[in-house]
Amino acid sequence: MRNPLSKVVVDIQPSGIRKFFDIVSEMKDAISLGVGEPDFDTPWHIREEGIYSLEKGRTFYTSNAGLKELKLEICSYLKRRINLIYDPDHETIVTIGGSEAIDIALRAMLDPGDEVLIPQPSYVSYLPCVTLAGGKPVIIELKAENQFRLTKEEVLDAITDKTKVLIMPFPNNPTGAIMEYDDLADIAKIVEEKDIFVISDEIYSELTYGRKHVSIAELDGMKDRTILINGFSKSYAMTGWRLGYAVGPKEIIEQMVKIHQFAIMCAPTTSQYAAIEALRNGDPDVEMMRDAYDQRRRYLVHALREMGLECFEPYGAFYVFPCIKNLGMTSDEFATALLREEKVAVVPGTAFGNCGEGFLRISYAYSIENLKIAIERMERFVKKTKR
Ligand SMILES: Cc1ncc(COP(=O)(O)O)c(C=O)c1O
């Protein structure tokens, strides 16, 4: 029989995050600080709206790009938060999470051989999605000494005549780094000069601490060059509802809708109704969750530093990214031994790119009680290791 598989697909590495969590799920008393998923339930009024839509029999496909009512809410949210005006009819698409938006944005924009700049450490899907879209991933290694922000020098070093897209993964998973206005201004200038485009993954835009989220699309000339991706999973604790969106230039969104139309048809109808409620009345919930994350963030950074681990202060998302280089172990060795000896699961930094070596991703989307137990165990482990 012929090999039924695509070589391109077979060559793609599976996500390095899942491996640990399959072990954790079978380990008694293990604490996982691994998964990037809010520990909060979706706020009740949002769930209720989903239930109500089912009671009303709203169980049909919506239009391909999403319910008009939802697209209007998305546009009014973006106007309110970042003062950008998008056309709900031509510049907005509702997707299956930010995940689908990343995938179809790349597929809509890339031809074989087009290069895509991917700053790492970053979310695991960018690289495989670029490859699957026929593009060539070009990795930019972000540096701890720059607080894992992207610099203009790094972009200039990586850019070639074949570069078409720059992925902007901020607020960042796994480092928690954000980009502020001045950082973005440097990058925007290059994007314009070199005539490239941006896919800005702003899924954590509501989760910044003491710093305001700035979208690169807000900068002069950038709206016409940026596909802005966001969603409901992180800010409204709606991971399982699978809902996200993208806004951007009409020509690109139109092509994204075409792919979405054939591959997906439309995002889940129940989730779309629930999302309207989230955008209309969800601000206080977001604020409550943000405050809780912030408390946990401050607790963790302090505790990790007390343990003797270098830990830069993350201003976004819900992860800390401590450095373990002084312990003489690789990230994978540390994470494996910590799980075996103390039953605490964290993710090796290398799951987010080779330059994550020497770091761990610890998620604080877990209750403070769990974090405290995990930190006690980790402290014991670090003390043992240092001896
Ligand atoms: C940076 C980033 N982008 C996108 C996603 C995808 O999220 P979703 O598809 O649930 O919207 C995630 C999920 O972990 C993420 O961390």
Describe the structure.
With 387 residues, the protein is an alpha/beta fold. 42% of the residues lie in helices and 13% in strands. The strands form three sheets. The chain has a seven-stranded mixed sheet with strand order 2-8-7-6-5-3-4, sandwiched between helices. Strand 5 (163-168), helix 8 and strand 6 form a beta-alpha-beta unit. The protein is globular. The chain binds pyridoxal-5'-phosphate (PLP). Pyridoxal-5'-phosphate is lined by residues 36, 97-99, 123, 169, 173, 201, 203, 231, 233, 239, 244.
Which features would summarize this protein structure in a list?
binds pyridoxal-5'-phosphate, seven-stranded mixed β-sheet, globular, 42% helix, 387 residues, three-stranded antiparallel β-sheet, 13 helices, alpha/beta
How would you briefly describe this protein structure?
This protein is of the alpha/beta class and about 375 residues long. The protein is about 40% helix and about 15% strand. It has 13 helices and 12 strands.
Name the hetero compounds present.
pyridoxal-5'-phosphate
Please tell me how large the radius of gyration is.
21 Å
- How far is the N terminus from the C terminus? 57 Å
Strand content: 5-15%
What's the number of helices?
13
Poorly predicted sequence stretches spanning 5 or more consecutive residues: none
What class would the helix/strand composition place it in? alpha/beta
User: How many beta strands in the DSSP annotation?
Assistant: 12
The neighbouring-strand order within the major sheet is 2-8-7-6-5-3-4
The arrangement of helices and strands along the chain is: HHEHHEHEHEHEHEEEHHHEHEEEH
What oligomeric arrangement do these chains adopt? single chain
Specify the helix fraction band.
40-55%
